[in-house]
Specification:
There is one protein chain. The chain is about 0% helix and about 45% strand. The termini are far apart. The chain is an all-beta fold. It comes from Sphingomonas alpina.
């Protein structure tokens, strides 16, 4: 069975080799039909302590690592990509 992959924002990096990732999803309300946001926090394994609070990352489901950790961080999502510099001769 394929592993689930989610994208979310790191809200805490205080634990050793652990980050807390907030994953938001949008769902339609059953009765009123309005689109509402639902969020859930996942504890994910960060072996090298390289990810910091405020970064957007992708996490992947794994076998249980500890009581709360069943996810590991795969990589950063480049949300602030800067365009390549183009020199224009005037």
């Amino acid at each position: 069975m394929p592993k689930r992959v989610l994208t979310g924002l790191i809200v805490s990096d205080k634990g050793d080799k652990t980050v807390v990732v907030n994953v938001e999803r949008k769902v339609k309300h059953a009765l009123y039909g309005k689109i509402i946001r639902r969020s859930k926090k996942y504890h994910a394994h960060d072996e090298a302590n390289e990810f910091k609070q405020g970064e957007t990352v992708r996490i992947e489901e794994t076998a249980p690592i500890s009581k709360l950790k069943t996810w590991k961080v795969i990589d950063r999502v480049n949300t602030h990509a800067t365009p390549e510099r183009v020199d224009v001769d005037a």
